[in-house]
Write a structure and sequence with these properties.
- The protein is mainly α.
- It is built from seven helices and no strands.
- It has one domain.
- Helices cover 74% and strands 0% of the residues.
Length: 121
Amino acid sequence: MRNPELLKKDWPLYVADMIGFATKVLTYTDGLNQREFIASKLNYDATMRNLCMVSDAATNIPTHIHTIASPINWQKIIGLHDKLIRSYWTIDNGVVWSIIQNEIPLLIAQLETLKNLPHEN
């Protein structure tokens, strides 16, 4: 298990986690259309879990990094967890599918760029 105090100082580990979770989202939905994604309970559940993990990891990225990586909509990513977990009965699968198809690939590219920047804790 990772030491939480160490990770607060070493935000690139969270960025790497976000990339990993987001990549799983794309893997679990690869070759599916929206209807097939929703019907495939295992893929659906695994994808939703990893979307939540992306959001959760984002909460550990320091605010000064949000400024450096301003094209990333940090608040929207962080807020996704609450929408998926606390408001599960109102999930719009069309919106989820749009996030998977349009926003996750872009997010991965942005996080890869952020990961490769020189950093200080």
